[in-house]
Structures
1.
Amino acid sequence: MMALAAPAARADVVVPDRSLSQWNGEDGYRLWLRHEPLEGAALEQLRAFNPIPGTPASPESETLGIAESELREGLAKLTGGSIDADRPRGVIRFDCGRRERGGDGRFRVTSGARAIRISGPDHLSCLYGAHALLRELSRGVDPATISLDETPAMSLRLLNHWDNPDGHVERGYAGRSIFDWWRLPERLDRRMIDYARANASLGINGVVVNNVNASPLFLTPHYLPKLKRLADAWRPYGIRLYISARFSAPRDVGGLPTADPLDPAVKAWWNAKADEIYAAIPDFGGFLVKANSEGQPGPQDYGRTHADGANMLAAALGKRGTVIWRAFVYKAEDETDRVKQAYQEFVPLDGKFAGNVIVQVKNGPLDFQPREPFHPLFGAMPRTRLMLEAQVTREYLGQASGIVYLAPMWSEVLGTHTGRGGTVAQVIVPGGIAGVANTGSDRNWTGGHFDQANWYAFGRLAWNPALSPERIAREWAAQTFSREPEFLDAIVPTMLASAGTVEKYIAPFGLAHLMGTGHHYGPAPWVCDLARPEWNPCYYHRADKAGIGFDRTAGGSDALAQYAPSVAARWADPAQMDDRLLLWFHHLPWQHPMRSGNTLWHDLVARYGQGEAEAGARSALWARLADHVDYRRHAEVAADLATQEKEARWWRDASIAYWQSLNGLALPAGVRRPDHPLDWYKAKTFPEAPGQ
Ligand code: GCV
């Protein structure tokens, strides 16, 4: 095992000053599917087993063929090509029925002395089983002891792309879109297959290819051959294609004067559109819809309800597909606390949605902030299928800088008891889970190398929400970087703590929505003059000379009342509650006494400082891991961590300078003053920021 090297010199982490061959080595494209050769006991065990994929000799379907070649190539890589064809073999047998797809993906992998059997109801089970077997072997599990019996927790496990037809990705931090609509259908980029492989390795089974702020182009005949080409390419990997549908499409591209969902001509237009799509793509997944939200058209434009709109589309799809209707709605004209509005609009519609409609709800009631309570709709619509929407791309969590591993945050939400009908994970079983994708045209797919871990973790938790973030991080890091225990023992705890670090310097004590306007990059808590009140950071922090925080108790907006009483009780008393949500639910004086014995002001300043210190420590730790990681990826991560370090300092300093401008309080003794006066932070602009 390699010893930990001394910290690299600062310049060394940023500048690619090595030879071209070192730079041209591992670049992250292969994701977690590298299957680097095993070493030591794990290699010996695999060699002793000498596994050869046994059947089928000639694949009975494309899916089985893919499963077989994944396994053959994966084993060859894991053994460094050292399987001995002349020795007795450990046969790996596929036993997955006659159907190619149609089941839920469940699989079993069982091993005896000289054989491993991968079984399940259809060929997709064998593909999932093959990936699971490779994952286990990659972790160093002895092939003779492997025993897996897995069924996905929910049937829909989707990625949502916010990609536009022109290649721009809304909230994308990894380059341009991976979808090349210009060259499709003639040219199918190899990336489209590698993307499907990666998703299949996790069990992701559906992809919405375009932004929820949807262009109606996707519903025109011009786009159908492009969509068909993708759907055909992904089908053998078990991935169904969905599109975001613009509600006003009958008017925008259909030549009708209205998009009223109760208008017979509008219904006929959608019926014909669905038939046209299914004629080309028989397993088309369905429509995702953002309606009457942030300026998007919807049924309320015609005095109709969300249920009227969703059910009209659901009737057009019939049994063939699903309408996924987003609950992310709020209005500038509504005087109520923004976080209450979705609940108020949707709960009265419980039981009114058709069976093939799913209501998709963000994890929290605001908008993917570093810290939010779970969305009160979970558990509050027992007669409606609900789906959870998580954001894999890090719009509000530092975008693509540094290391921010989101599994602990998602796992916490999934495991939270709603107080009405089980945990969030249980409530969404009839619906499913969707993640806003973080992929782009960058060679490493996700901008930051560690952002691959978020794609991976999303897929693994979608398959099994009970998996621990620790186990997922270990699996991912071992497959993606290095299996060396010294590396894993250092990087896994770092990953686990990383979302907490960002929370400390961006959203301490449950402060939210304090970012810059438009690009959402960096701090701007001073913004108070945007036309829509609920777009202003001031709306959320409510800070003044006396105190800070949003009172959501009965004395304030009473958003607490939207939760089950058992849950609300946990957050009602500032003295008892989890302080990570303190200022989300309470407006408190700066001198409020905290459990620590200090004042709120003192602890707030300290928390920013902890965030900054943790970000700095992460850079130093990564420098010490240089010997465990290939050159290029190490250098790129080091540079991203250096950026994160700067951002942590900037968030801390700008925030503290602003709070001081309101409260006039001195910093606690010994605490570093912000580097610059407040106006310096206010003057910063980011015209080139991505993702806007
Ligand atoms: C796709 C936030 C984001 C928007 C996004 C929206 C949504 O407001 O900033 O970019 O739009 O959420 O989820 O619809």
2.
Amino acid sequence: MEIRVVATRPFTDQKPGTSGLRKQVSHFRKPHYLENFVQSIFISQQGLRGGEMILGGDGRFFNREAVQVILRMAIANEIRKVTVGLGGILSTPAASHLIRTRGAAGGIVLSASHNPGGPTGDFGIKFNVANGGPAPESVTGAIHAASLELDHYRIARAPHVDIDHVGRQHVGEMEVEVVDPVHDYADLMESLFDFPAMRALLQSKSFSMRFDAMHAVTGPYAQAILEQRLGAPAGTVMRKEPLADFGGRHPDPNLTHARELGELMYGRDAPDFGAASDGDGDRNMILGSGFFVSPSDSLAVMAANAHLIPAYQAGLKGVARSMPTSQAVDAVAEALGIPCYETPTGWKFFGNLLDDGRITLCGEESFGTSSDHVREKDGLWAVLFWLNLIAARGQSVATIVREHWQRFGRHYYTRHDYEEIETDRAEELMTRLRAALSEMPGRSFGSLRVRAADDFSYRDPVDDSVSTGQGLRMLFEDGARIVFRLSGTGTLGATLRVYLERHETRPDQLDEDSQAALAPLIEIAESVADIRNLTGKEAPDVIT
Ligand code: G16
């Protein structure tokens, strides 16, 4: 088969962010742009040569085209075998599982997660290493370095590869195996949870649930697991057909973008349990009837109740959360007498802790939770965990969470996002704030006194690697926190994230509205960072 060596020039903007390279589709369609990045993966990850690679994505616009390009480049870069999801589809957790079970050298996942799709939307590409997890910083750094040196890429002049039929074929020297994207993943879920109890719950007349697949990748997974294996009534899965543009909406599981689900869950005769997942199936939102479970609380409730789930009956080795995630899970870890690790934002930082057997569960405020069953966050897994929990405790979502608060206190929590700010302005805000940190300890804001203030850095306890500049923290004497950081997943300008948290233990103060309960902190955050002035915005664009 003819291999073309195509001359190219480096792009200077191919540094992977929090989760791979995310850009607008139009950016990815620039001549050589996708090819350059893929070649940088192949050059820097020599372990792929002669090995097996997993390939799939969330089915968004440009997914199929990118799959064909990557297959032709894989041939030219001497990959022995590529296993690809039918139609080029694999949810992120299913890709992670396949990498692990196949003993693959790595995988390429095509997704821009919860970002909008379609020709004017976003696309993304992410490399996962042999443990099934997102590449650590050492690997993304090597990919980026290779992208800056690139002067050619290799691509085979191969015919269009059929990815629409399950089976094996040879294209040149390379084997391509097209697999059912759902089957192995559904088996894995069945091995973790008490399916008979969940089936009984879903089939009982007194219980109902809705899952919003947001016209994204989890539609087929949720139908196979919830409706087929667990016997939930047809229609339990809403917006179930995956669409290349997600029906024109953001596949972002929150109350703004999962509007219909929210209306149902807060309406009359609301279902007992509501849930949603995102574009590539790794995020989750959990709702009870008229009740929203914050992702940080969800992680804590899961940790406190893990012994009720078959896979975690023996107890948890430890837990981890990203730094901006609330400290609710810390309180559970303390009660359980297990370690709790605090990592920077980004799932890649959990990989070593999971591989080293230090933790069993981990999660983030950004609607992500998972366990050691894969090395990615896992949306449907979290939904099934909650379903199993409801079946085991025989209580509503709201009762489970309120009882948790009575026991551990409530960590009131919110995140304010200021989107599409001019990059210079956002950098200026962070620079000014960073400079002010050293003056903050001892300063009082009303009744709140700053105990410490720093720019978070993390030393990985397994390989001793250090990551700096991971978010500016104001830590108050009563345990409250304000964290500022710039998002690493946006594609337009900069997004400022402000995370706010305080712990409340008074039993009669646990059912307040989060924004009201955090109002004094919100005011401090806005004034110390001069947000209105520097962003030109009167209010956050998104509040979660
Ligand atoms: C990705 C990462 C998460 C991170 C989130 C938000 O999620 O996998 O670890 O918490 O982005 O990151 P940032 O605050 O930098 O935008 P996903 O679901 O977008 O792949």
3.
Amino acid sequence: MSDSDKWVPYRHRQPAESPPELLVPSVMPTDERVWVPVEQNVWFRPLLMCVSRGYWCNLLRVRRSGVLSRHRHPLPVHGLVLKGEWRYLEHDWIAREGSYVYETPGETHTLVVDPHVDEMITFFQVNGAMIYVDPDGNVTGFDDVFTRLEKCRNHYAACGLGSEYIEQFIR
Ligand code: FE
């Protein structure tokens, strides 16, 4: 490659089957309605709803201490803590602001936010599903990209952004 080629963009079409790229200019929304409530004081903010591969990327926000959920992962999860901190009852570490977390396939754990934390915000890429369980591992429910999509549609329709607001995040 010659020096003059360095700043020349790729000249050809992208593959026809390649989905459109996605840029979310500001992951922290200025419009509070973008946060989808899951339960009291718990919200998620969709970034990518990848229905073609069965995963989703979102921010999770918690504004009061408590036990969030006990769940099992069939596939890996990647997490990046943007604000506050949280931990799993099954581990002795604490995920603090700036921490990266890899959650392994097959693991069951219980996410808790301790009382001294005012607000926790964490980016998660969740593959496959969150399978909610009791302390013995009996299944009590699940979430996958499709149940999350449904929650987004319902919330955005109800809050006035419009159910189609979620479409921009679907690939
Ligand atoms: Fe988890």
4.
Amino acid sequence: MKRLNSQMQQDGAPLELILLIRTLLAGCKEISFRVSQGALAGVLGSTLSENVQGETQKKLDVISNQILKDILKESGYVKAISSEEEDDVVPCHPDGKYLVSFDPLDGSSNTEINSLIGTIFSIAHAPQWMEPDDPAAFLQPGSQMVAAGYVLYGPSTMLAMTTGKGTHIYTLDKTHGGFLLTHPNIQVPEQTAEFSINASNQRHWEQPIQNYVADLLAGTEGPREKNYNMRWVAAMVGDIHRLLCRGGIFMYPYDKRDPGKPGKLRLLYEANPMAFLMEQAGGLASTGEGRIMEVMPEEIHQRVPVIIGSKDEVEACLSYYD
Ligand code: AFP
């Protein structure tokens, strides 16, 4: 089976980017090991602190963030980091060529129930003018990403990644420690009968999503004339993995609760990397008003509405916004 290195070379990734990705994944392998030890290693449960988003941090959020931060800072390839678990940009090496944004442990509430969790990352060029502690360099649209992906810590540890030449999925061979290409050039089916949304927020959704979901629920008796199934992992990384494997539509839409929070998911280290993976696999990713990868960020922890997945179904959903 092909190794990650050869696939990245075949896709034309520059050497320094390959080395950076390998460094990042070394950190993810360590997270995978810590996660698999669970209660035996005392890594489950919450800390007493909150992150900048006001969410209580799990011990594994803090451990995973530290592992990635340490390994990337030491590497010399990275100029600065932005992380869900860091209030501000973390300066790294002044000559680093890249910026890395990550959610070190997405879906961390799932740690308590031994369910799916993962690390999500995106990589962009560091502008030469930037000082390593300057957040302005991170305010580039997602279309500027040079690589993005996630590592899913599930029954197998899997990596989904793109460097802009298709989306490939690899499985960690824990006997040798390498990621092997198990699902090359993923193509998301254009049609689907499966949707994902946190229905407990229904009363807050904006009207187009209310109308769209009502039509899905009406099944064969409604205007869509087919029955839909619903799935919700409560970790975006798990839901997007299912979409890449067999199609579907995932929504975390704009809701009316707090005008300061247009959606729950963060642009730089959740929405953008998943949008890049999805588009490279033939799917679509929108905020409802436009392509996610064209949103110009205003701050590093910015949130956006997310509608992502199988092409025809996302288009059907977007038609409710017209
Ligand atoms: P964390 O990164 O804080 O663990 O949050 C996970 C997440 O942002 C995303 O992965 C899920 O889709 C979403 O939250 C689920 O949240 P709710 O179940 O509260 O809607």
